[in-house]
Design brief:
Structural class: alpha+beta
Radius of gyration: 23 Å
Helix content: 10-25%
Strand order of the largest sheet: 3-2-4
Order of helices and strands: HEEEHEE
Number of helices: 2
C-alpha cells in the first residue's frame, strides 16, 4: 500500500512540475505603420517581402525584430533545404 501511495505522489510531482510553453513562435520581421511617435508596429512576419507587402507606400517600413528569441521560442522561419548533392547514379 505504501508503495502505491509513493508511486502516485512521484507521478503527481513529475506531472505538475512547471515547464516552459512550447507554443511561442519567433517572427524575425516587424512592420511599422505611421510615424514613430504616432504609429504602431506588428511583429508577425516570416520574411521581409511578406512584411513589405503589407506596408503602404510612404506610410511605414519593415525592420528586423529587435527582440531576440528566447531559448524556449521556436522559429517560424522554415529550415533551409540541404545543400548536399545526391551522388550520380
Amino acid at each position: 500500500m505504501r508503495t502505491v501511495i509513493l508511486a502516485i505522489a512521484a507521478l503527481a510531482v513529475v506531472e505538475f512540475t512547471p515547464r516552459p510553453s512550447e507554443a511561442a513562435i519567433y517572427y524575425p520581421w516587424c512592420a511599422e505603420y505611421g510615424t514613430r511617435s504616432a504609429g504602431s508596429y506588428d511583429c508577425s512576419y516570416v520574411t521581409k517581402s511578406q512584411c513589405m507587402a503589407t506596408v503602404p507606400v510612404n506610410e511605414g517600413h519593415c525592420f528586423q525584430n529587435p527582440k531576440p528569441p528566447s531559448a524556449y521560442e521556436g522559429s517560424a522561419v522554415p529550415p533551409q533545404p540541404s545543400q548536399q548533392r545526391r551522388p550520380p547514379r
